[in-house]
Amino acid sequence: MTGVTRLRAGALPVLAAALVAGVLGVQLANGGGHYSPLRPAHSCVIQPASSVATGIDGLTEELVLTGVNAAACQIGVSREAFALQLTEPGTHTDAQINALRSGLLTAVDILKAAGKLPRASQLAREAIDISNLSSLRKTALRAIPDALIDKTLTTDDILRRTINDLDLRTLLANLGNRQDMTTQVDAAVMKAVMDRLKDDVHCC
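Above: the chain's sequence. Below: its structure in token form.
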């Protein structure tokens, strides 16, 4: 197994799970985090959201806030109204689920176009540091040059694959249970990583 393959199989599940799961539950369960204006913002004025956090936490917050905004525009409601819809108990409609998925994918494009997606190597280093991998495996992953990581992996591709594989209906139903939500995301991330391995190195 090559160093890059080890990186994909080991670090990226940690990275992408944090990127998509880390804030989706927290932001939506609390009514959307940073947006509590007196007048709801126009949802179709879509710009990259800002975050006071840094690293993976900051990126996840920007991704989710931008994605919810794009989804609200598609449905034709304010960002605040859509966030409240997502936190309501009961079954979510196909329109809501499709809009959320489309919004998150749009958010990836918006953040990429704005130059706000960090290099894969930057996120990989942080993901490795916070992972539960063994010390030996972490050492091996850290030995991979940044240039090689960035040549082989892209943050936007991993995010898109993960978002496309997410069971958003189940994820939203588990907003009050971080463990169940993370399990769902982990499964989607592992599938995305395995697909990359099959496509790129014809492995596994």
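Residues 3-201 form one domain.
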